[in-house]
Structures are given as C-alpha cells and as structure tokens.
Amino acid sequence: MQDKILDILRRSHQYVSGEDISAHLNISRQALWKHIQNLKDSGYDIVAVPHLGYRLIASPDRLFPSEVAYRLHTKNIGKKMYYFDTLGSTMDVAEELGQKQAPEGTLVISEAQTKGKGRLNREWSSPKYKGIYFSLILRPKILPNSAPVLTLLCAVSVCEAVKKVCGVEIKIKWPNDLFIRHKKVGGILTELNAEMDAVRFVVMGIGINVNNDTTTLVEGATSLREQNNKVPLNRVELLQEIVRSIEARYLLFQKEGAVSTLTQWRQHALTLGRRIKVLYHKEHLEGEAVDVDGDGALLLRTDAGLVRRVTAGDVVHCR
C-alpha cells in the first residue's frame, strides 16, 4: 500500500488531498495517515498541509525496491527484489533463492554486509549506506565453461553505467576488479551452480564504493565520490542504470553471443598488454596478458612464447 501511495505522490508535483488518495486506494483517512507516518519514519520527506493534502518533497538515500523499481523500465532484471538493511552476504541469500527456483533477474540488495564476499575467500568491506551491494540471479542457457564471460559482461555494464551517471572512467583488471586511477572501486563475484553440461543458475555479486569517504575505505581503495570531486552521488540512480546496462548486454549476449561484450571489455581492460603474474591451480605463471578468448578466459604469453589459457587465478600486474 505504501508503494501505491508513493506512486500517487510522485506523479503529482502539487499537493494531493488525503480524501482523493483514500478514495483512490479504498482505504480510510486514518489508515492513510498511518501509512504516511511509516513512510516518514523510513526517511521520506512528506509535507502535510490542512485543506491541501500531502506532497512528497524528497526521498531518502536508501535502495528500497520501490525506489529502484520506479521508472526502471526493464523487462526482466529487477522485477523481483529482496531488500535488507543489513545482511551477512547478498551472495548467500541469492544462492538460497536460486536453489528455491527464484526467477531469473531476481535481485538481492543490502545497505550493508557483515560478511561481504570477494574472490578467493576475501572479504569485501560494505559500510552501511555508502556503497551498492547486490546479487543477481541469472539462468543462462550456456555450458559451464562459458560462465566466466558473464563476469566480464557485468564489469563492462558497470563501467558503462558509471560513465553515463557520473562521467567517471573505470578500468577492469581481469577477471573481476574495477579500478579508477589504479585504486580499487568495485568488484564482481560469480558463483556457478551447474551440472557437467548445463548451468542451473549463476549468482552475480557486485559491490561498488559509491559515497565512501577516506574513513570508510580500506587501503588501496577509492570511491566514486572521491573521484567525483567529493560530490555525493545518487545511489538509486546509479543502481538503476547498472541494472539497465546489465540487462541490455545480457539480452544481446543471449541473442548474438559474447563478441560485442568482449570488444567493449578490451577497451576498458587494465590487464591487457601488461606483464603479469598469475597464481593458477597452485602453479605460478608469468608473461604478457595478450587477450581474452570467447569464454572470457585470459590468454597469457609466457617468456617461452607459449600462450596459456587461464580461466581463474589471482593476477598481479608487474608493470
């Protein structure tokens, strides 16, 4: 009911009488007043004036599903959302929902994580109301060995969305790290649930430092705010654009394959053309990162001239 009230208030730039809202929603004036109070308690700035009614002045900086869904205009992603103020990890909840047949496009969003996940069992710092932390359930009809390209797809989508919303250029360190001026601003974690020859579902976890200041950033990290002249960003607007960008690229991937995504990934790549070290299956590889293949694997040319295909590993840039 509160979402319906918000929708009415959003569509009007003037005051809306309580009588009109109550009649439209078939609720009592007393019930409407209680809903308005609950919205105010959630951070919505709603002004009430006798004989004029109610007017929405401002929305809170919260990633409420009603805020994210407003004018989102996606076909699939974000049609179902789960929102938490604080959570251990969005990945764990999304994995559980995936097992319970949650539909493709389901989002799990949290304002903070106490056990945020990064690659290789690392922790992702997730201070409350500062960043964007969410997981997305996808059910692509692909072979398991093609799943890594989804990491690159989401990375490119984030780069495009950030550029559009705040004009900041992001570079991608293979396979999943997002950097601005050699400082980490975000990351992507992909967890696969699959059989030998089929993917059941994929959980894509995305974490981005948005409005963090230096007191909430770990060493070597930055935020979009720090890179945007310390001007706070609208997290709802940015999340909406990321979701739209992911869906557009995902639909293109389903229709035409990964060629377009990989072309764009190469333009954002921080790793290609550099000498790197990779810890891969307890093996140390070193050489030049020359390209990625059609499944998103990194192609590394060793000093002996051999090209090795790397599907996972911890990458260190040497120069």
Write up what this structure looks like.
- There is one protein chain.
- The protein has 319 residues and is of the alpha+beta class.
- The protein has three domains: 2-58, Orthogonal Bundle (Arc Repressor Mutant, subunit A), CATH 1.10.10; 65-268, BirA Bifunctional Protein, domain 2, CATH 3.30.930; 275-317, SH3 type barrels.
- 30% of the residues lie in helices and 26% in strands.
- It has eight helices and 14 strands.
- It has helices at 2-11, 18-25, 29-41, 65-69, 90-99, 148-166, 235-256, 259-268, and strands at 45-49, 53-58, 81-84, 107-110, 132-138, 171-173, 177-180, 183-194, 199-208, 275-280, 283-292, 298-302, 307-310, 314-317.
- The strands form three sheets. A seven-stranded mixed beta sheet has the order 3-4-5-9-8-7-6, with helices on both faces. A five-stranded antiparallel beta sheet has the order 13-12-11-10-14, with no helix packed on it.
- A hairpin with a 5-residue loop joins strand 11 (283-292) and strand 12.
- Helix 2 (18-25) crosses helix 3 and helix 6 (148-166) packs across helix 8 (259-268).
- The longest helix is centred in the last third of the chain and has 22 residues, at 235-256.
- The radius of gyration is 22 Å and the shape is elongated.
- The relative contact order is 0.11.
- The model has no long low-confidence stretch (mean pLDDT 93).
